[in-house]
């Protein structure tokens, strides 16, 4: 099996698992996985597809600028530049973007603060934060319609080889060393968001 086939299958499996969770409503979301470093090439989801279906046209290979690396009729995700920012700035191998009700509501509730902090939560250990007083901070950036502008602001929020950024009233993007780690971080974030929303309801 070639590296390309191997990475294709890894990303397709992650996509199927996120689809089972119903995290691709209305064709939203996009996923990427690095295939080569020099020159940088990664697979990204084709734009506008129903990501709940598994097909031979789910992904295409793009370069460091998000342009197709091979002749294809497929269009890369409209948000490919955000994935470019991750691979350009970190050693991450996989990046995932999903829209959920929980991540959208949290991004709106905490958007003016520009971040949400989690402390004293077991699941922040998914990010490697094992100390008792550790804090997981997830930045929240505005949802610019202009994708190069959004990607530029997003890039400023990337500070480590694994992480998460919320885009206000849009969704979340996470990245990690491979599909397993990126999915783990995404699931941890969604757990923390759902917890926070349930707690706020309870406290009312
Ligand atoms: C219908 S969702 C609006 C676009 C978006 O935010 C998204 O995540 C999906 O865009 P893509 O081009 O990757 O299909
Ligand atoms: Zn999106």
* Succession of helices and strands: HEEEHEHEEHEEH
Strand order of the largest sheet: 3-2-1-4-8-7-6-5
- Compute the number of strand runs: 8
Task: Provide the gyration radius in Å.
Answer: 16 Å
The span between the termini is 55 Å
In terms of quaternary structure, what is this? single chain
Please bin the fraction of helical residues: 25-40%
Q: Hetero groups bound?
A: the ligand CSCCC(=O)C(=O)COP(=O)(O)O, zinc ion
Alpha plus pi helix count: 5
CATH class reads Alpha Beta
Indicate the CATH topology. L-fuculose-1-phosphate Aldolase
Mean pLDDT: 98
- DSSP strand (E) fraction? 15-25%
Structural class: alpha+beta
Shape: globular
The CATH homologous superfamily is termed Class II aldolase/adducin N-terminal domain
Function: Catalyzes the dehydration of methylthioribulose-1-phosphate (MTRu-1-P) into 2,3-diketo-5-methylthiopentyl-1-phosphate (DK-MTP-1-P).
Pathway: Amino-acid biosynthesis; L-methionine biosynthesis via salvage pathway; L-methionine from S-methyl-5-thio-alpha-D-ribose 1-phosphate: step 2/6
Family: Belongs to the aldolase class II family. MtnB subfamily.
Domain Class II aldolase/adducin N-terminal: 9-197
């Amino acid at each position: 099996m070639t590296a390309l086939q191997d990475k294709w299958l890894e990303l397709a499996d992650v996509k199927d698992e996120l689809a089972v969770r119903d995290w691709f409503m209305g064709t939203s979301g996009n996923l990427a996985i690095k295939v080569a470093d020099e020159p940088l090439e990664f697979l990204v989801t084709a734009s506008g597809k129903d990501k709940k279906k598994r097909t031979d046209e789910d992904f295409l290979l793009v370069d460091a600028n998000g342009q197709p690396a091979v002749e294809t009729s497929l269009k890369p995700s409209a948000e490919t530049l955000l994935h470019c920012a991750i691979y350009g700035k970190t050693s991450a191998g996989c990046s995932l973007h999903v829209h959920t009700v929980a991540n959208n509501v949290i991004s709106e509730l905490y958007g003016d603060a520009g971040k949400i902090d989690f402390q004293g939560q077991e699941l922040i250990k998914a990010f490697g934060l094992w100390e008792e007083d550790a804090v997981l901070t997830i930045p929240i950036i505005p949802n610019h319609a202009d994708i190069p502008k959004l990607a530029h602001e997003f890039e400023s929020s990337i500070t480590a080889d694994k992480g998460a950024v919320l885009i206000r009233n849009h969704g979340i993007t996470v990245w990690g060393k491979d599909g397993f780690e990126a999915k783990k971080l995404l699931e941890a974030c969604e757990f923390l968001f759902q917890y926070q929303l349930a707690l706020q309801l309870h406290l009312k």
